[in-house]
Design brief:
The structure holds 2 protein chains of 2 kinds. Chain A contains 10 helices and 13 strands. Chain A is an alpha/beta fold. In chain A, strand 11 and strand 12 form a beta hairpin. Chain A is globular, with a radius of gyration of 22 Å. By secondary structure, chain B is mostly helical. Chain B is globular and about 65 Å long. Chain B starts with a helix and ends in a 9-residue tail after the last helix. Classes of the chains: A alpha/beta, B mainly alpha.
């Protein structure tokens, strides 16, 4: 394909894409076409999501294979970045700048005139809900504020497509909900988004289109409900440490989705296997409250996605 | 499954007027303006300015600190030449250039902020050149301010002998500033280029600056010709003329009988600046920077 801008081209076209860091394989022979709309890139930590997104955003060079984004070559292509916004994973900033200065400076670097850059920076900052803190130094921002600022700088030029690397990391539940709504809104406005996460529920709230990546390989691509069906066939493990584990076990045993209950050696920790984690998580607080059981800790030993990955790998 | 065919048919994004990508020099100017605004207010610039003020203090306190016969340092202007040559040109120029030049590009890699510059519609070479220009402008500004302060402390006010000599000494001081700017451009380009491929460019820069440039430039014979300092000394010698220079300077540092002419020396130093910048820009254009390999 030539270097000309291809209107309506898929967001990403990768063919035989591999990336090695010395002896370490970051991405292994990935061939995929990601269409327009919002697409979730899902995989556990270390799966190769960030490597894939760095290749998509032209930060690194493929060791083998080809990649085109919006129909254009990627590495060293300045023109692509008039159409593509990137929200990197790294939590790095020019710390002494204020949020507004940073967003404005990024727009000035992109070639926007001073007044236009100011207008767009303020609008983008307001859109991510940072406007009360726009004149604060970035060094004083919380992790959540920094994530939102990264998104603001990517959104401000109104790009045709966005690449977001773990944008929900470090956000509190309220911030996550707001960020998810924002990403969905971008999709509705016609901006194509490729967003990575290692948490299925988060991606599910944004889109039903996903790519599953594991150990550098693309395992599956498709609708999230297909993954959901796989999840339902693979029980989700939860460790619950509480004041009365035996009473809790007896209450949980009455539910059909709980397929196995076991006690750990300390006698205070119950391991539950459920085929419907969402129902389990909504039911658990009610039981604890009704039976006045105090919860010491709640931990998912296996977030379900891992089970799906194991299933897909073994298949 | 994600349907690529359907994706191609998806409605295009709303039409938005976006600036065109910048050309090489325009992009570099944007980066330089952005960077200069930050770095001029940085702690590093403040420390360099303070450090650079030391020779000016030295010049200003000549009578207090040094018991020298007037026939040796005939006037304050000559003492200015001496301190300029010994402290500013031989040391502070290198010090300033190595700290600003070596970190010009490498700090973006180290701080992992490079991703923001590389995902703007800018050429990668523009990012390097912009950072380099910013370092050169800041370094030159610090060197110029401290040199003019030094001249004002002694060379201009007290040392010109009479009022009619002030314009002449001022012109010489300005030529010295030009020499420092040229030297700063060359050294910054070399150190910034080193910073594009080494993880600890400051250490290597210090070795080059104070090992190679200072030591090698003082070896008798033709070996100093391969240092930038040799050419800067040639320019310095032509600004003042041998006869006007303090004897210790002539004896110790300007003993080479065949200094280049100022024109040739300026060309060589400018050439080093251009070649260093070109090499750095080429490396940045072709090299990937893995900022944080989390996976």
């Amino acid at each position: 394909m030539s270097g000309a801008v291809v209107s309506g081209a898929p967001l990403v076209e990768a063919s035989g894409l591999s990336k090695w860091y010395g002896q370490v394989v970051g991405l292994n022979d990935v061939t995929v076409t990601v269409g327009r709309g919002v697409t979730g890139l899902l995989g556990p930590n270390g799966a190769g999501k960030s490597t894939f997104l760095r290749l998509v955003s032209g930060q690194i060079i493929p060791s083998r294979g080809t990649i085109r984004v919006l129909g254009e070559r990627v590495f060293g292509n300045a023109r692509l970045f008039t159409r593509l916004g990137v929200c990197p994973e790294t939590d790095a900033f020019y710390e002494s700048m204020t949020g507004l200065d940073f967003a404005r400076a990024m727009l000035r670097l992109a070639g926007f005139a001073r007044e236009e850059a100011d207008r767009r920076a303020r609008a983008a900052i307001a859109r991510v809900g940072l406007d009360p803190d726009l004149k604060k130094k970035i060094a004083a921002y919380s992790k959540g504020m920094r994530q939102r600022l990264k998104l603001a700088q990517a959104l401000a030029p109104e790009p045709e497509a966005l690449v977001l690397d773990e944008p929900l990391n470090g956000l509190d539940p309220v911030g996550r909900a707001a960020m998810v709504a924002l990403i969905r809104d971008c999709g509705q406005r016609g901006i194509s988004v490729l967003v990575s996460s290692h948490i299925l529920h988060e991606v599910e709230a944004m889109t039903d289109q996903i790519l599953l990546i594991h150990q550098g390989k693309l395992l599956a691509e498709g609708k999230i409900r297909e993954i959901r069906e796989l999840l339902d066939r693979h029980p989700h493990h939860v460790r619950v440490a509480c004041s009365e584990p035996r009473r809790l076990a007896s209450r949980l045993a009455a539910h059909a989705d709980v397929v196995r209950l076991a006690f750990e050696a300390d006698g205070a920790t119950l391991v539950v296997e459920t085929t419907k984690p969402d129902e389990f998580y909504s039911r658990l607080p009610k039981i604890l409250r009704q039976d006045a059981i105090s919860l010491a800790s709640l931990e998912s030993t296996d977030d379900g996605l891992e089970a799906v990955f194991r299933y897909l790998v073994s298949a | 499954m994600i349907d690529a065919a359907a994706a191609v048919l998806a409605p295009p994004a709303p039409s938005v007027v976006r600036p065109r990508p910048a050309g090489l020099l325009r992009g570099a100017l944007r980066v330089a303006a952005f960077d200069l605004k930050r770095s001029a207010r940085s702690f590093r610039a403040f420390v360099l300015l303070l450090f650079g003020a030391l020779p000016a203090v030295l010049v200003g306190m000549r009578d207090v600190l040094f018991d020298v016969p007037d026939e040796e340092f005939r006037a304050g202007a000559v003492f200015f030449h001496f301190v300029f040559f010994m402290a500013t040109m031989q040391f502070f120029l290198l010090f300033c250039s190595v700290f600003l030049g070596a970190s010009a590009f490498s700090e973006e890699v180290e701080d992992q902020t490079l991703v923001y510059l590389f995902t703007r519609p800018l050429r990668r070479a523009s990012v390097f050149l912009g950072k380099l220009w910013s370092a050169t402008v800041l370094g030159s500004a610090i060197l110029t301010v401290t040199t003019l302060a030094m001249w004002a402390m002694r060379g201009g006010r007290f040392g010109a002998g009479s009022a009619e000599n002030v314009p002449a000494t001022a012109a010489q001081a300005l030529q010295c500033c030009g020499l420092l700017t040229l030297g700063c451009a060359a050294y910054s380009a070399v150190f910034a280029a080193i910073g594009t491929f080494l993880k600890k460019p400051l250490l290597v820069g210090i070795l080059v600056a104070f090992g190679w440039e200072v030591v090698v430039s003082n070896i008798p014979g033709v070996i100093p010709n391969v240092t930038v300092m040799y050419y800067l000394r040639s320019i310095f010698a032509s600004i003042y003329g041998r006869a006007d220079l303090p004897r210790p300077v002539v004896q110790v540092f300007l003993r080479g009988p065949n200094f280049d002419t100022a024109g040739d020396a300026i060309l060589v130093v400018a050439g080093v600046a251009v070649v260093g910048a070109a090499i750095g820009a080429w490396i940045v254009s072709h090299r990937e920077y893995v900022l944080n390999r989390a996976e």
